[in-house]
Amino acid sequence: MATKSKISTEDWIEELKGISVLELSERIKALEEEFDVSATAVAAAAPAAAGIPLTHRGLARSFAVVTASTAHAEDTVDLARMATATDTLVVLMASGKLAETCLTLIDAGRPPSTPAAIVQWAWTEDQRTITGSLADLPTLAAAANVGPPATLVVGDVVSVGSHRGRDRARRDLHSANAPRPFTR
Questions:
Q1: Which of 29, 80, 89, 152 has a CB 3.0–4.6 Å from the CB of 94, allowing a cystine?
Q2: Burial tier of 150 (Cβ tally within 10 Å: 0-12, 13-18, 19+)
Q3: What pLDDT, on a 0 to 100 scale, did the predictor assign at position 173?
């Protein structure tokens, strides 16, 4: 395996000045590297891909990000503690434990009628967003065969997203001149 040379951030920025987004996209594809995307970026990007804001005036002033799955069985996520601690809750890697996650949130005090969405394959041509209430989302997602990778968004902001034309971001992304930030 060949060693890849590293360049400084300043040199990289200088090299990118003046190139188009399409050219940048082509350069990234040409590298054929796998890019690590931080959980923070995914937590904001998946809802954004579906047109769902994390905060919204009058509805949500706070959000938190947790994971539904951990690498080690002995590590558990205290979803009950997070259930009512924030206006918007983003749950990463949620598809495999969606029913359990939603039930835990309801049992911990989130109303069953709370708007919820699961975003699968955010920012790809295969993106799907299933919305419903916290109580019925697991059934809706199962009927749609939602699997990983998927991000759960819980809170009143989901209802704002459903009225904002979620497909606009995807249309823009898949236009001829748009970059493709994530590929399978």
A1: 152
A2: buried
A3: 47
**3 in any annotated domain:** no
pLDDT tens digit string along 20-79? Answer: 767 766 666 665 454 555 566 668 888 988 999 998 988 899 998 888 876 666 667 788
Same domain, yes or no: 24 and 66: no
Give CA–CA dist 63/69, Å, rounded: 19
Question: Which residue shows structure tokens 């898949």?
Answer: 174
32 and 115 within one domain: no
Please write the tens of the pLDDT for every residue from 123-171.
Answer: 888 899 999 999 999 999 999 999 988 999 999 999 987 544 444 444 4
CA distance 133 to 155: 9
Share of the chain above pLDDT 70, in %: 65
Distance CA 149, CA 126 (A): 11
Cα 25 off chain centre by: 21
